Amino acid sequence: MHTHGIAEQSFEELDFAGQSRSINGTVSHLERAIKAHVRRATDEGRDSQQILRNRIDEVRRMLERLERDV
Fold first, then answer.
1. What is the Cα–Cα distance from 52 to 55, expressed in whole angstroms?
2. Most buried residue, 3, 39, 41, 64, by CB count within 10 Å?
3. Where do runs of H (alpha helix) occur along 1-70?
4. Which is it for the CA torsion 36, 39, 45, 50, positive or negative?
């Protein structure tokens, strides 16, 4: 099980503020990961703009699912 913070709590065990901080950190991590992925695409001679659009589309689909399901 993935844990968060010093107390080694799962996400569900975090209080509201702790969950918010965790989500913010995850979003920041995802942004850095996508940027690194696009850089790797460039290094490998791939269409980095298409790769970026693909990743953005994936995030948009996630947001659409959240808006629909929550």
1. 5
2. 41
3. 16-43, 48-69
4. positive
